[in-house]
Amino acid sequence: MTVTDQTIDDLLKLARLEVDAAEHDRLRDDLLRILTFVEAISEVDTDGVEPLVHMTTAGDPLRSDEAHDVLGKAAVQGSAGFTGEYVRVPQVVE
To answer: What's the burial of 8, exposed, middle or buried (CB within 10 Å: 0-12/13-18/19+)?
Structure first.
């Protein structure tokens, strides 16, 4: 595939980007390298290859979703102020 200056101009317009001439040339060269790499990958025979879902066979290292009391009111009372049953904190937004 050929990558022309018009191709780069069209992509820049779609992305609403403005670049100088040097960056324009670098983008053209980078896009050409990417497309060459994709063309090389598309030549690989993948018949009979199962799609890859995860990189390893290890499962998801998720913990069980169980509710428990991390900091009770009694644990916080010594270092925080309370208004009723709510913790009072310093104002951070004006």
So the answer is: buried
